[in-house]
Specification:
The chain is of the alpha/beta class and 144 residues long. It has a single domain, classed as 3-Layer(bba) Sandwich (D-tyrosyl-trna(Tyr) Deacylase, Chain: A), CATH 3.50.80.10. It contains three helices and eight strands; from the N terminus they run βββαββαβαββ. Strands 1, 2, 3, 6, 7 and 8 form a six-stranded mixed beta sheet that branches. Strands 4-5 form a two-stranded antiparallel ribbon. A hairpin with a 2-residue loop joins strand 1 and strand 2. It is globular and about 45 Å long. The mean pLDDT is 97.
Length: 144
């Protein structure tokens, strides 16, 4: 599983002209599911997302967790994170098929919600327009 986590001042995802998910201060998570991922992988990635101390403390140091910062989370599925670019036309054979990817994507969402976070989402497989105002910018890649 691969998560690209960006600290944002705000972020939103629009599908067919309508806002599907929107947050203010928080984390925008682009989430790719690998064909070999398991429920254990999804739980580990959710734990890392929820525990990243990437918000600034009173001294300007990244030392505050998302929960302590009052952050929300916007999670957007993105199979293209597993693009094979060995040729100029990307291949996606390492990305999980929807029958496997959807339950694991939903498990990450559930795990974050179970930890008390307000979570917004895109729609798996939809053509989405994602907007964000990065804060920092701070972007972390979680790979497992």
């Amino acid at each position: 599983m691969r998560a690209v986590v960006t600290r944002v001042n705000n972020a939103s995802v629009v599908i067919d002209g309508a806002v599907s998910g929107s947050i203010d201060k928080g984390l925008l998570v682009l989430l790719g599911v690998h064909k070999d991922d398991t429920e254990e992988t999804a739980k580990w990635v959710a734990d890392r997302i929820c525990g990243l101390r990437i918000f600034e403390d009173e001294n300007g140091k990244m030392n505050v967790s998302p929960s302590d910062a009052g952050a929300a989370i916007l999670i957007v599925s993105q199979f293209t994170l597993y693009a094979d670019v060995s040729s100029r036309r990307p291949g996606f054979s390492d990305a999980a098929r929807p029958d496997k990817a959807i339950p694991l994507y939903e498990l990450v969402i559930k795990e974050c919600m179970d930890r008390g976070f307000h979570v917004e989402t895109g729609e798996f497989g939809a053509d989405m327009k994602v907007s964000s105002e990065n804060d920092g910018p701070v972007t972390i890649v979680i790979d497992r």
